[in-house]
């Protein structure tokens, strides 16, 4: 261990200093004090003749030499010390009892010179504990899976970083191979991998990548899952059904994830399925900013929930739009990915209707709701959703002319063959990047919303 700068005072000898300095974890962090120990020594008046100072109890010092490293890499003493009742022995040289005129703060390099036989002792001015220090090595690492590399690249650009190097390939039988191609020992790793179609392949890839990072001695692993695919299986609606959302949460935890960062889960209860911390962020802020740019009059706007289950989401969305009125489309689902609209609760006649949902899969629900809104006299209909899953025949339904515009985010990549003129894709990279930075710095995420 390196020896930081030390202080000798008249009548004091070799003691332990109670307060040590810890280096900054991220740029701009102030030095902090913590319980620990660092050596204190007296400057030797004349090493050749054995002049020195007597030993006694010393007071703790909070002064640090600018030459001393806060990370323990400063130059150390090339010898041992032996305390006795008459004085202190340093590499066999005895220090006699003599008083020094004034205390001195020495650089660690000065002690190295003493141990090497040098005579000159450099002196520096003390510095304050709260002085800002130079940035420690960056321990933040961003990795991308094969699900949405474009989004991961945007997140890395927001953070001013390059994507870390990783090798992912598939064998002929479909098995996934992952190798981290740089050292991440002691690093805070963030893996950006939404479980977009094919869901099972991308989920398995995420699990294997987490395991690779855990075996590479990463300090912490955060699974950044912008789209959590199994969130719809969050409860039992019929007998003998599985709750796949809880199962996937358990698998992620067992694989080695220390934290999950998800966006717009299908239901808030999914957060409780995890036994590790979950940061649940909302993409509606990105969509709201875009809608505000369209300058739609508040009196002409009505927010519509496409089903009863999304009322809470639509109400929160409407509140952020100057407390716009709310309407609800009542539907009855006959089978998975199939729905039948029954009636409308609320008034939309002559207004601009904004349908709000967390995802668009086959677009059956939201398209049927749009047709009912037009039948009830809505002037224009906008569709807003965070996750553009767009399973066939979603593109055909959304481009059938019932929507003025379909607004989604890039949590799930939209391939060119599923794009259409009414589609607008907004980026959530800045939102995810800011959340990652706050998690890395142990700052509040709630304050963002």
TrEMBL record:
Composition bias, Polar residues: 59-83
Span list, region Disordered: 55-83
GO cellular component, one term: ribose phosphate diphosphokinase complex
Keyword field contains Transcription regulation: no
Keywords annotated in UniProt: ATP-binding, Kinase, Magnesium, Metal-binding, Nucleotide biosynthesis, Nucleotide-binding, Transferase
InterPro entries: Pribosyltran_N, PRTase-like, PRTase_dom, Rib-P_diPkinase, Rib-P_diPkinase_bac
Residue ranges constituting the Ribose-phosphate pyrophosphokinase N-terminal domain according to the UniProt record: 141-256
Entry coiled-coil feature ranges: none
Highest taxon, organism lineage: Eukaryota
SUPFAM superfamilies for this protein: PRTase-like
A GO term for molecular function: magnesium ion binding
Keyword check for Ribonucleoprotein: no
Its EC number(s): 2.7.6.1
Alphabetical GO biological process terms: 5-phosphoribose 1-diphosphate biosynthetic process; purine nucleotide biosynthetic process
Name listed for the protein in its UniProt record: ribose-phosphate diphosphokinase
Protein's organism: Elliptochloris bilobata
């Amino acid at each position: 261990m390196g020896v930081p700068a030390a202080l000798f005072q008249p009548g004091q000898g070799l003691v332990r200093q109670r307060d040590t300095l810890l280096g900054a974890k991220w740029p701009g962090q102030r030095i902090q004090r913590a319980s620990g120990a660092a050596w204190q020594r007296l400057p030797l008046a004349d090493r050749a003749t054995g002049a020195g100072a007597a030993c006694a109890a010393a007071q703790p010092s909070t002064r640090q030499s600018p030459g001393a490293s806060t990370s323990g890499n400063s130059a150390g003493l090339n010898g041992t010390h032996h305390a006795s009742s008459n004085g202190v022995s340093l590499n066999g040289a005895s220090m006699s009892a003599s008083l020094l005129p004034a205390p001195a703060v020495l650089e660690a390099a000065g002690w190295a010179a003493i141990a090497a036989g040098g005579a000159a002792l450099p002196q520096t001015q003390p510095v304050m504990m709260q002085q800002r220090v130079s940035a420690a090595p960056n321990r933040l690492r961003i990795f991308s899976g094969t699900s949405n590399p474009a989004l991961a690249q945007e997140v890395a650009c927001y953070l001013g970083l390059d994507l870390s190097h990783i090798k992912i390939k598939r064998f002929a039988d479909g098995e996934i191979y992952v190798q981290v191609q740089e050292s991440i020992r002691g690093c805070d790793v963030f893996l950006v991998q939404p479980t977009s179609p094919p869901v099972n392949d991308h989920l398995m890839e995420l699990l294997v990548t987490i395991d690779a990072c855990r075996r590479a001695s990463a300090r912490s692993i955060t699974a950044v899952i912008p789209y959590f695919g199994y969130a719809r299986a969050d409860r039992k609606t019929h007998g003998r059904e599985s709750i796949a959302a809880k199962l996937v949460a358990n698998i992620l935890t067992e694989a080695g994830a220390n934290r999950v960062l998800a966006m717009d889960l299908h239901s808030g209860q999914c957060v409780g399925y995890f036994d590790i911390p979950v940061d649940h962020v909302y993409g509606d802020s990105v969509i709201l900013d875009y809608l505000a740019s369209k300058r739609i009059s508040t009196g002409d706007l009505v927010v519509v929930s496409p089903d009863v289950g999304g009322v809470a989401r639509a109400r929160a969305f409407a509140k952020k739009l100057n407390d716009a009125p709310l309407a609800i489309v009542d539907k009855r689902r006959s089978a998975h990915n199939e729905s039948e609209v029954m009636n409308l609760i609320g008034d939309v006649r002559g207004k601009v209707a904004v349908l709000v949902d967390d995802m668009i899969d086959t677009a059956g629900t939201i398209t049927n709701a749009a047709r009912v809104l037009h039948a009830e006299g809505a002037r224009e209909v906008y569709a807003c959703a965070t996750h553009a899953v767009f399973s066939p025949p979603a593109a055909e339904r959304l481009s059938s002319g019932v929507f003025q515009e379909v607004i989604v985010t890039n949590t799930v990549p939209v391939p060119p063959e599923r794009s259409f003129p009414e589609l607008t894709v907004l980026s959530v990279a800045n939102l995810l990047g800011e959340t990652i930075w706050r998690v890395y710095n142990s700052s509040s995420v709630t304050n963002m919303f």
